[in-house]
Amino acid sequence: MKNFNVRILSNEPVADDVFRLTLEAPELAKTARAGQFVQVKVSDEFTLRRPLGIASTAGGRVKIFYRVVGRGTEALTKKIVGDWLSVLGALGNGFDNPSGKVLLVGGGMGLAPLLCAAENFLADVLIGGRTKAEVLFWQNEFAPHVEKFFITTDDGSYAKKGFAIDLLPEVLSAENYSAVYTCGPEVMMRGVAKLAMNNNLPCQVSFEKRMACGLGACLSCSIDTTDGRKKVCKDGPVFDAAKVFGGDDVG
Questions:
Q1: 42: Cβ contacts below 8 Å, ≥ 6 apart
Q2: Which of 97, 161, 202, 248 is the most exposed place for a label (fewest CB within 10 A)?
Q3: Helices (H) and strands (E) in the chain, counts
Q4: What is the dihedral angle through the alpha carbons of 194, 199, 204, 210, rounded to the nearest 10 degrees?
Q5: 41, 214, 247 from 48: Cα distances, Å
Q6: How far apart are CA 228 and CA 95, in angstroms?
Q7: What is the pLDDT of residues 209-248, one digit of tens each?
Q8: Closest by alpha carbon to 211, among 234, 188, 182, 190?
Q9: Which domains are assigned to the chain?
Q10: Does residue 232 contact residue 211 with C-beta atoms inside 8 Å?
Q11: C-beta separation of 123 from 137 below 8 A
């Protein structure tokens, strides 16, 4: 883990309140693993850095997607090409290297770390979103990196109507996957974990939590696991699903 001063190559909107930030960061890209994140210093105005998942490390560039949710991320949208950012990373633990093809299941901004997994592993992806506009840019991002993709929208405006979890049994029955990796709303990940384990598939979940320090010191992102209290930023954000949800909850 190091602090890098990196140059912004692009910072552009890709959907409602969602931006794609691309950084020239060859050293960081070389060492980062799928599932890890960085802590970005937006400016001296903000004491705390912002934790953002790594979505791509191809070609010595680090790609990040972020949603505008407050003053910090709003300020980040004002950064322009050529500006420099202080980036701490790569942080946390990433996904295990699968033994075969892995199924990635994500919704919303949880798809960002899964994109990095798709870039590095043999994978298919199941994308869930509210509307056509919300899933289209993700489809375009994943298309070069996966063999197959499956899409659901809550409102039925694109692909199959419903939630990703509704389509998951059909997808799992059609292919022999070695594991399932998921990131998104916790209720979705819990359902994904249950179906994966019922199909005797290893499942890893990537948690999205508010983090203050990103280094395991402040305890703001602690969660309960079967191995005791753990910190998402340091012990995760990727965990074995059985350890965070417990056998009784997902079995």
A1: 49, 50, 72, 73, 75, 76, 79, 85
A2: 248
A3: 9, 15
A4: -20
A5: 7, 10, 36
A6: 21
A7: 555 555 555 656 677 777 777 878 778 799 999 888 865 4
A8: 234
A9: 2-91 (2.40.30.10), 102-250 (3.40.50.80)
A10: yes
A11: no
